[in-house]
Specification:
Length: 360
């Protein structure tokens, strides 16, 4: 494990989990499962099985540094702060160059902070396979998740289909497709050679830096220290300048869709990105009518297949609802049909126009 490093990306807002997830405290810092642990705490605990504690770094927005310290107990030098959100490529470039100065032979695991993984031992096995491939073959490795439905909210990875598919196999990636429409997602599901893109990446730190230099040289040069900026008092000022000048782009568009040395490990370890209330619903305990309820005073009558998340002590009587999301948090009540949840962002934009003072 001595050369293993991890980067937890924790700068997102999680607007589709509104009203629980808000800009002041996004979903990665919330106990959305009602189990006494936040999503970032679960992510950190999982990575401790693969990486020494002092080699796990969190990249987050400056405004969340205190939350990270409070929830994970990390020393400040392991909390890397972005002055603004510029997507995942700048985040990864920053972490890669910093870690390279600490260990040029580092293996790097990059993981989102807000995903759910139910089979953690299997996850560890899959990551170890990916680490071996990345180290031996200088590849950029992603973890692909066997799809269970034609979900239009995920990116898809097409891999070389050379016969029987076994979990834990390493396959060469042919192409990435970001969030297809329903018709295309159904075609992908039937084909058998498309898996969901988990957004979890494994590579040698040297390999990702070489890839950044090849495909995004301007971005790479901004984060490549010309002196001794990293791990000094000058680091934050140097990084802030790089973020102000770099482009806003994901690692998928910047590197993975262009590189030829991209592999995927086929996996199935109980993964969900918990991107929506509906994805959370599939992982919660349900009553005989299919209702998933968080809240100790909720009473449902003649209602089916709902997800309810209300504060403890909040007495609620709900009748005649089918396939609804009912959430109260921060003095806000939201009631939305489950099959309309992808429109929550659009609804919020409309509300913001009509009531801008509330969002100030």
């Amino acid at each position: 494990m001595k050369n293993n490093f991890a980067v937890i990306m924790a700068g997102g807002v999680g607007s589709r989990f509104w009203p629980m997830s808000q800009e002041t405290k996004p979903k990665q810092f919330l106990d959305v499962l009602g189990i006494g642990k936040t999503l970032i705490q679960m992510t950190h605990e999982r990575l401790l099985k693969l990486v020494p504690a002092d080699q796990i770094y969190v990249v987050t927005n400056t405004s969340y540094a205190d939350l990270v310290e409070e929830q994970l107990g990390l020393p400040r030098h392991q909390i890397l702060t972005e002055p603004m959100r510029k997507n995942t490529a700048p985040c990864i470039a920053y972490a890669a160059h910093k870690i390279y100065t600490l260990d040029p032979n580092a293996n790097l695991i990059v993981a989102p902070s807000d995903h759910l993984i139910l089979m953690e031992d299997r996850f560890v096995e899959i990551v170890e396979i990916a680490l071996k491939d990345a180290a031996s073959n200088h590849t950029l490795v992603t973890l692909g998740i066997k799809p269970s439905r034609p979900d239009t909210g995920y990116g898809y990875i097409q891999f070389e289909n050379t016969g029987d598919i076994l979990m834990g196999e390493v396959r060469k990636v042919q192409q990435f497709t970001e969030k297809p429409n329903r018709e295309l997602a159904e075609i992908f599901l039937k084909s058998g050679d498309y898996y969901w893109n988990s957004g979890i990446f494994i590579w040698k730190v040297q390999t990702i830096i070489d890839s950044l230099q090849k495909f995004k040289p301007q971005l790479n040069e901004l984060f490549k220290s010309k002196g001794n900026d990293y791990n000094t008092d000058n680091e934050q000022a140097f990084v802030n300048q790089a973020f102000f000048n770099c482009e806003d782009i994901s690692i998928d568009f910047a590197i993975l869709e262009n590189a030829k040395n991209v592999n995927v490990v086929l996996a199935n370890f109980g993964w969900s990105d918990l991107g929506t209330w509906g994805s959370l619903y599939t992982h919660l305990e349900k009553d005989v009518e299919g209702n998933a309820v968080i809240g100790d005073k909720v009473h449902l009558f003649e209602s089916e297949n709902c997800i309810v998340n209300l504060p403890n002590g909040k007495l609620a009587l709900l009748q005649g609802l089918d396939d609804y999301i009912i959430v109260e948090a921060h003095g806000i009540l939201m009631v939305v049909k489950k099959d309309h949840e992808q429109r929550i962002k659009d609804y919020l934009k409309d509300i913001q126009k009509k009531d801008p003072a509330y969002f100030a």
